[in-house]
Structure prediction request, 304 residues.
Amino acid sequence: MLSRNVREGRCVESRMELIYALQEAASPTLDRIMLLVTNAGSELVYVALLVVAYVVVDARAGRSLAIVFLSSMYLNALLKLMFSTQRPFEIDPTVARSPSAVDTAPGHGFPSGHAQGAMTFWGTAAVFVRRTWFTLTAAVLVAAVGVSRLYLGVHMPIDVIGGMTIGLIVIAVGVALQRSGMSVSRPVVIALGLLVPLALQLLVPVDDAGVLLGGLAAFIVGPELVRHHTGGPLLGRVLLGVIALGLVFAALMGSSALLSEEVKRSAIGGFVRYAVIGSVGTVLVPYLGRLTGLTPARTARPGA
Prediction:
């Protein structure tokens, strides 16, 4: 028994070696930098980026990016529940760089949600942008997020590597499906876009399922209800993007203040809340853009 405990202790220590090595360069300034990098992969940042990508940059690519990203993060939550691994600071509390760092790490360790999210978002974006400078920038951002999770003591190396690998797999599947040329009628897209995420929410609940699946439903269904196009003047699109961010975050904060905790935590309530918030960006804002002339009103159907 003693020998087994010694072996397990050495195994844990070997998995922590990279974290200890990174923290040899620790300083208050580096702590702040790494926390800033980690927070660049927070939920609110991705909400803003997805809104801008869809409303301002490219509606078709932005919609696909959102669907791939939200699907990936739901998968991440499922995998965390399945593996239920410990985080470094749960094994050795001294590696937690600060309480703020620990606050960024709820739930289990494997796979890293920050690493998987960064890889999925920036990797998918790089596939659509197809520019060398953007791909290199995306790679640096993904690597920086991964290193920050190790430095802050909130993930094991295998968590980060696993998250990035799963993110790459999700990208490959998502891009392959998009390029398959598969055509689905609008009524079927709307029906499946509502029913499948709702069924997952009810049957396979996980942490943050409401925001992920509600947002997924909004990006699948919304563009089928009001078609958004980003071929108009840049100034008009930027202005509409500012309006979109204001309305989406107003809906987010307003619903948080007005709804009871019981409603927000319920499966149906959480799903409906975030589906409505997502629809502000995918239905209301495109309608306002068309109504005000900030975006063109064409008849071509955006791809899913």
About this structure: Residues 245 and 284 are 12 Å apart (CA to CA).
